[in-house]
Amino acid sequence: MLSLLTVDDEPAVLRALRRVLSPHFTVHQAADYREAVAILQRSPMDIVISDCVMPGPSGLDLLTLVAERYPATVRVMLSAAPPAAVAGAIRLGVVHRLLVKPWDRDLAQTILATHAEVRGLADQSD
């Protein structure tokens, strides 16, 4: 089963993500950038889904770090209103997919498809 880290400063969002994703993934959760980095240092993830706007370093900061340190990790941004910088991050490959809150019922399938797509592209470039 793929390992997935969800990062959001809202506990209700983390609970909802766990409920939707846990049948399909081994789900780890963090409430902020620092907690996410600590989890990643202990156990690299297949996928990281991060909220964009959080107190302290942003989700974009986190996914940039993940892209640098763990380039094989699939990176997904989750946001109600993504800032313009996210478009640039997508173009640069820092963010593989942007998902808008509220997410649809097929969230797990979208994440699985994104993982397959990104890993397929990575396999072709090896």
Question: What's the quick description here?
Answer:
The protein has 126 residues and is of the alpha/beta class. The protein has 5 helices and 5 strands.
Quickly count the helices.
5
Radius of gyration: 13 Å
Residue share in helices? 40-55%
Structural class: alpha/beta
Order of helices and strands: EHEHEHEHEH
Q: Beta-strand level of the residues, as a percent range?
A: 15-25%
Largest sheet: 5 strands, parallel
Principal-axis shape equals globular
Known CATH architecture:
3-Layer(aba) Sandwich
Q: What's the CATH first level? A: Alpha Beta
β-strand number = 5
Strand order of the largest sheet: 2-1-3-4-5
CATH topology: Rossmann fold
Q: What number of structural domains do the residues give?
A: 1
Please tell me the overall pLDDT.
91
Give unreliable regions as ranges: none
Assembly state here? single chain
CATH superfamily: Response regulator
Structure description:
With 126 residues, the protein is α/β, with parallel strands linked by helices. The protein has one domain: Response regulator (Rossmann fold). Helices cover 47% and strands 20% of the residues. The chain is built from five helices and five strands. Strands 2-1-3-4-5 form a five-stranded parallel beta sheet, with helices on both faces. The model has no long low-confidence stretch (mean pLDDT 91).
